[in-house]
Amino acid sequence: MAMLRLRDLKCYYDTPRGVVQAVDGVSFDIQPNEVLGIAGESGCGKSTLLKALYDYIQPPLQIVSGTYEADFPDGKGKVKTIGPGEIRQHWWEFISYIPQGSMSVLNPVIRIESQFFDAVPRDHSLRAVGKTAIRERVAAYLKELELPVEVLKSYPHQLSGGMKQRVLVALGTFLHPQIVLADEPTTALDVVVQKGILLMLTELQQQMENTLVVVSHDMGVHYQISDRLAIMYAGKLVEYGPTDAIFNNPAHPYTQMLIGSLPRVGDRTQRVGISGRPPNLVNPPAGCRFAARCPKVMDHCAHEAPALLQIEPEHFVSCHLYGERAS
Ligand code: SF4
User: Fold this and answer.
1) d(Cα 44, Cα 36) in Å, to the nearest integer?
2) Is residue 89 part of a domain?
3) Among 87, 132, 207, 304, fewest CB within 10 Å belongs to which?
């Protein structure tokens, strides 16, 4: 049974330039105890989708239509289905969010220790044990993660970029949430630090047996850590399935080009990028949104939007090369 379910979800930004259709009709399930990757170019809607999953909807962003719901264990052996407006009541303990850019996310005028205190919900049992006990729990958790306890007394600007990101991961996992959402967790970090952060995230996911959803434009990150992968293009989900199936048998022309552009050890041939630009999401094309860049475009692609079809077990694609319109 899926833990989080999205059905035809549409999230738009109402801006002075018009309504940006950032996430436009996305449907998929997120399973318990998995690492789900969400990939795609900048502006494809992946970070907006993550905000929706976190129930972090603030103007100008709004949910226009569709549904999403999560199964929340109430602690008494029962599972309650919760949706937008309710998910936020269970931030940190049920679902946590590691936003993009640790530099700007941590409050610069508050010591790290207080940022942990603030993350404990008012009705959480830890509140009853008092600040000293919480401090001890946080210190023990940092030691478990092999982070120096001294960071608790620091302000964010006193920490390196890599340490700030590790602190954010610690903060996001402190209450052992069932779902951890991480937005570009390795951006702007050097390769060695990136590797350490990915290792930390995946080890914690394995220990807690929870669900980790990672947004990244870096397909190498997904290859290393994701069990399943969702590929987004211009607000649409274009391919979705087990990571191995997507890397070994990419079905959508966009996914094929994304994977084809990756460097390979020992292969010195020039990698070809994807020419052209994604469409303007204020006024996107009526048919397939990839049509203007697709090397396999057909006549009907420009005016008929393809549906999401299953092409092999658990592997879905949205493209006219498959299904009834193939050939
Ligand atoms: Fe290319 Fe047509 Fe498939 Fe879109 S639907 S990816 S234009 S072949």
Assistant:
1) 17
2) yes
3) 132
CA dist 236 and 245 (Å) reads 20
User: Could you give the C-alpha distances from 148 to 139, 163, 168, in angstroms and in order?
Assistant: 9, 10, 14
For 3-41, letters b (16+ CB in 10 Å) and e give bbbbeebbbbbeeeeeebbbbbbbbbebeeebbbbbbbe
pLDDT 10s digits, 10-61: 999 999 999 999 999 999 999 999 999 999 999 999 999 999 999 999 999 9
Which positions ≥6 away from 166 have C-beta within 8 Å? 145, 147, 196, 197, 200
Q: What CATH number does residue 33 fall under?
A: 3.40.50.300
Atom number of ligand 1 nearest to Cα 238: 6
Using the mean position of ligand 1's atoms as its centre, give its distance from the Cα of residue 301 in Å: 6
Q: How far is ligand 1, taken at its centre, from the CA of residue 297, in Å?
A: 5
Structural domain range at position 35: 4-105+177-279
Residues in the chain with pLDDT values less than 50: none
Report CA(269)–ligand 1 centroid distance (Å): 27
pTM (2 d.p.): 0.93
Spacing, Cα 306 to ligand 1 middle (Å):
8
Question: Which of these, 5, 53, 3, lies nearest to 33 by C-alpha position?
Answer: 3
Ligand 1 atom nearest residue 300's Cα: 2
- CA 306 to ligand 1: nearest atom: 5
Structural domain includes residue 44: yes
Please give the Cα distance from 222 to 46 (Å, whole number): 14
Counted domains in the chain: 1
Residue 243 lies in a domain: yes
What is the CB < 6 Å shell around ligand 1? Answer: 252-253, 288, 290-291, 294, 296-298, 301, 306, 319-321
